[in-house]
Recover the amino acids of this structure.
């Protein structure tokens, strides 16, 4: 299990710095400090290494987000948890962020579907947000909005804040950016 984790960490580093197309399996093996043959005992292809590295972090991010949202007492806390957990996680795991955004962009540009489980994790996160919005609308806590559209908007807003961090190399995560965005959202949803 330790070797698999080391391979995935090496893969994140190499894919994030070189991109998928420029990466060769030998680069990942060298970064992990193992031979190419040993790497192939764990992963039969570069594509499988790529998606394993991507999904490993995506699963952890999903778990942390769900836990934070489910412990929230109000809809505001739940939405804030979704945004803040994701931004903090991605600030701490910049290599994952680069790979994740690359996969999303290539999916859109090439017109190919997102990896099945990754797509499900993104969809499930948005569905959980939609439930939060639907419940808040039903209780009269926010104005009537389409819960799915509101969830997609928050997801896109969060992704936009992440992308800004990547474009502004050297700029660290600033919780005030997220707080400002959440305040705009909360004001827009007021009754």
């Amino acid at each position: 299990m330790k070797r698999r984790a080391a391979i995935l960490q090496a893969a994140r580093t190499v894919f994030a710095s070189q991109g998928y197309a420029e990466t060769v399996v030998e680069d990942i093996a060298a970064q992990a400090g193992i031979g190419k043959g040993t790497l192939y005992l764990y992963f039969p292809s570069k594509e499988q290494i790529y998606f394993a590295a991507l999904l490993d972090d995506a699963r952890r991010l999903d778990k942390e987000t769900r836990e934070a949202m489910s412990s929230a007492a109000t809809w505001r806390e739940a939405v804030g948890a979704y945004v803040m957990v994701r931004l903090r996680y991605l600030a701490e795991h910049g290599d994952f962020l680069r790979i994740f955004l690359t996969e999303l962009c290539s999916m859109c540009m090439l017109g190919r579907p997102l990896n099945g489980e990754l797509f499900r994790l993104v969809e499930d996160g948005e569905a959980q947000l939609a439930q939060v919005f639907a419940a808040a609308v039903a209780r009269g806590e926010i104005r009537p909005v389409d819960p799915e559209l509101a969830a997609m908007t928050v997801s896109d807003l969060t992704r936009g804040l992440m992308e800004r961090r990547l474009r502004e190399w050297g700029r660290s995560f600033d919780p005030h950016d997220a707080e400002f965005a959440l305040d705009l959202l909360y004001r827009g949803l007021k009754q």
Q: What stands out?
A: The mean pLDDT is 85. The two ends are 51 Å apart (CA to CA).
